[in-house]
Amino acid sequence: MRCPCWLPFLVNYCCVLQPLCISAHLSLLFTVCLFRCVYLMASQKVSTSVTLAHFSNFTVCLSHSMGSWILDSGASDHVVGNPSLIYNLSPPKIPHSITLANGSKAQVTGVGQASPLPSLPLDYVLFVPGCPFNLISISKHTSSLDCSITITSGSFFIKDQSTGNKIGAGSKQQGLYYIEPPSPTECNVSASPDFIHHRLGHPSLDKLKVLVPQLSHLKSLDCESCQLGKHVRTSFRNSVNKRSKHAFDIVHSDIWCPSRVPSNLGYRYYVTFIDDFSRCTWITLLKDRSKLFGAFKTFCLEIKTQFGKTIKVLRSDNAKEYFSAQFNSFLISHGITHQSSCPHTPQQNGVAERKHRHLVDTARTLLINAHAPLKFWGDAVLTACYLINRMPSSVLDNEIPHSLVS
Description:
By secondary structure, this protein is an alpha/beta fold. The protein folds into 2 domains: 7-179, no CATH class; 241-405, Nucleotidyltransferase, domain 5. It contains 12 helices and 17 strands. The chain has a 5-stranded mixed beta sheet, sandwiched between helices. Strands 2-7-6-3 form a 4-stranded mixed beta sheet, with helices on one face. A 4-stranded antiparallel beta sheet has the order 9-10-11-12. α10 packs across α11. The longest helix is centred in the C-terminal third of the chain and has 21 residues, at 350-370.
């Protein structure tokens, strides 16, 4: 346990000395303080919750700024007296106190966090109002962070053990090792994380850590405004593993938007029919959306003739062409159930939407590679469909769609 009796006596003594005489009286001060310490420790038992630094350290510390941080091997906890240097301050769960030089106890009114440097976050920092020093406990710091401290005659370095990078440094001044303050280019603030988050326009936690390195220790940031203002629609679950058990039990269909350039035969649309089980795709080029009904009748006839199957369920979006009187009569007469997605919800028709993207991307690539004009997009889409049907699909665990439906 360090000497608890020196501070008031030493301060009073130093006040009556001339500045040039202090060094000449150091030995006398040490002797007087030592005898006073022995007397107090013999006359009463003094229990402390925090061990402070040597008395010689505080002699110089009183003359420095309240924002200075001192590296101390004798302190068992981090201690702060400047309220602007601590954040996330909360009352201690268990009453704490530190013992002053005259044996009296100073109450610890709060426990929080501090960042002497952006790379040196300190947890569990004791706040003592009016305390004229800010101490960094070496034992506490090395145990909380995997770091090493190298001390020389005039400076010290703090390095990360895992990476070897320097995370802090300081110099020796009048017998004390002071942390070097951050450069003016670094963002050094003492406001609360919530306040900074609000003023910077509610950035994400990752961006906030980049903007304000002192907040790199934050694990989460609860902001109700962010939750309301940045709320997104819940993702639709992947239905790959829930596809139908047999071919043509479910067929997905969708009409691709009009092309800005008509094909060489005057087509501006195409419609897809996708078997849910095999993901095999049939495409019919259309000059107008009203030709959908004829394309669907031809597709149904081909399925019945070539595979001996009938379609049970047709899934589409809410395009009006799928709800015409002729279309509905045909579905009813053939016992086909029509399932449509909710309005403005293309995710529910995701199989057809993703197939559109795959077809268009492949067709565009074919045109670029062949240096063909855009008017041949219809031929490129048909070629892309033929190739995709005969290529392994990751959706089907690398099985070939055409082989599954054959």
